[in-house]
Write a structure and sequence with these properties.
Layout lengths: L14 H5 L11 H9 L8 E3 L5 H4 L3 H16 L2 E2 L8 H8 L7 H4 L12 H12 L3 E4 L2 E4 L1 H5 L6 H15 L18 H11 L4 E2 H11 L5 H4 L7 H20 L3 E4 L11 E4 L2 H5 E3 L5
Antiparallel strand pairs: 1-8, 2-4, 3-4, 5-7, 6-7
Length: 292
C-alpha cells in the first residue's frame, strides 16, 4: 500500500480557501502546497526549488554528483566496459571509483567486509543503476557504453544540467526501497522534498531522526499500514522511523551531502541518530518558509 498524505476532509467553505489554509499536520503548508511538493517537486513557484545558479565550488560538495562525473569520465576513457556475468561492474573499476572517497561504505571502512563485488557498496550499485536510468550509459551485448547524452553532459558548461538530471533520476526513477528489506515500497522517497522543507525549517538545531520521522508520519499516516503486518518485533511506528532514517538520512540526503548523521549508540534504535543540516542544503535549494 502506498503512503498518502494526510489531506483532511474539505470544510464547508470555499475550495480555494480550504486549499490555501496552512495545516498543522503539514507543518504550516497548505493542501495545495503539499500536493505540488509531492507530485511536482522543485517546480517553479513551489515550496522547494533548486537554485537557478549554483557555482562549481558548491557542486563540488555533492558526493553523488562527483561520483557520477567520475563514472562518466571512466566510461569515456575506457570506451566500453564489459560487465560481469551477473551484470555488475568489474572489481578494478569498483575499486577505482571507491578509492576516490566520495561515498564510503561503513562495512568496508570498519573492516567488516572488503570490496569484492558491486553489491559491497550500495552507493556504487546505485550509481550503476541511476546512470543507466538517466540515459547517461547504455548496455549493449554485455558491455556498458557512454551515451551521446552522457558525453554531452560531461562538458563543464553542462554541469548544472547534469546535477538536475542526477537528482531527478535518484528521487523520481530509482527505487529507494531496492536496497533494504523494509515493508514499505515508498516510505521516505514519497515526499522526499517535504523532508527538505522540514530540514530547512527546523535544521538550525540538531534533532534526532525521530523528530523528523514524527513530522513525516503525521503528514503521511497511511505509511504505517505498510508496516502493520510486517513480522518484526518493533511497533509499526518504530519500523517506519527506522526505515525513514536509512532511506532519507543514512543514504539519500547524506549521499548528496545535505545532512550529517551521527549514528546512535549500540542498542539504541536508528531513529535516535542525530541529524545536522549542512549549509549545502540551502546553497542548492531555495525553500519557502513563510507560508500563508
Amino acid at each position: 500500500m502506498s503512503a498518502r498524505p494526510n489531506f483532511p476532509p474539505a470544510p464547508p467553505y470555499s475550495v480555494q480557501s480550504y486549499n490555501t489554509t496552512p495545516l498543522a499536520d503539514f507543518c504550516g503548508l497548505s493542501s495545495a502546497q503539499m500536493h505540488r511538493l509531492l507530485f511536482h517537486p522543485l517546480d517553479a513557484g513551489g515550496v522547494v526549488q533548486l537554485r537557478a545558479e549554483v557555482p562549481n565550488e558548491v557542486l563540488d560538495q555533492i558526493p553523488f554528483l562527483r561520483l557520477t562525473e567520475a563514472f562518466l569520465r571512466l566510461l569515456h576513457r575506457e570506451g566500453r566496459i564489459r560487465l560481469t556475468p551477473l551484470g555488475a561492474l568489474p572489481l578494478k573499476y569498483l575499486r577505482e571509483l571507491y578509492t576516490l572517497g566520495f561515498i564510503l561504505e561503513p562495512g568496508v571502512e570498519t573492516g567488516i567486509h572488503k570490496m569484492h563485488r558491486e553489491i559491497d557498496s550500495l552507493a556504487l550499485t546505485t550509481l550503476h543503476q541511476t546512470t543507466r536510468l538517466a540515459g547517461l550509459a547504455r548496455l549493449a551485448r554485455g558491455q556498458l557504453l557512454l551515451t551521446k547524452k552522457g558525453s554531452q553532459l560531461l562538458a563543464a558548461s553542462q554541469r548544472p544540467a547534469l546535477w538536475q538530471l542526477v537528482l531527478h533520476t535518484f528521487t523520481a526513477r530509482f527505487s529507494w526501497a531496492s536496497h533494504d528489506g523494509y515493508a514499505s515500497p515508498t516510505a521516505g522517497q514519497l515526499g522526499w522534498a517535504y523532508s527538505v522543507y522540514l530540514l530547512a525549517r527546523f535544521g538550525t538545531r540538531v534533532h534526532p531522526v525521530s523528530f523528523y520521522a514524527g513530522h513525516y508520519q503525521r503528514a503521511f499516516p497511511s505509511a504505517l499500514a505498510d508496516f502493520a503486518e510486517a513480522t518484526y518485533a518493533s511497533p509499526a511506528e518504530q519500523q517506519l522511523a527506522d526505515c525513514y532514517e536509512v532511506r532519507t538520512f543514512e543514504r539519500g540526503l547524506n549521499w548528496f551531502g545535505l545532512v550529517a548523521v551521527s549514528q546512535s549508540a549500540p542498542g539504541l534504535a536508528r531513529s535516535e541518530s542525530l541529524v545536522s543540516v549542512v549549509p549545502l542544503l540551502m546553497q542548492v535549494f531555495e525553500v519557502l518558509l513563510e507560508t500563508s
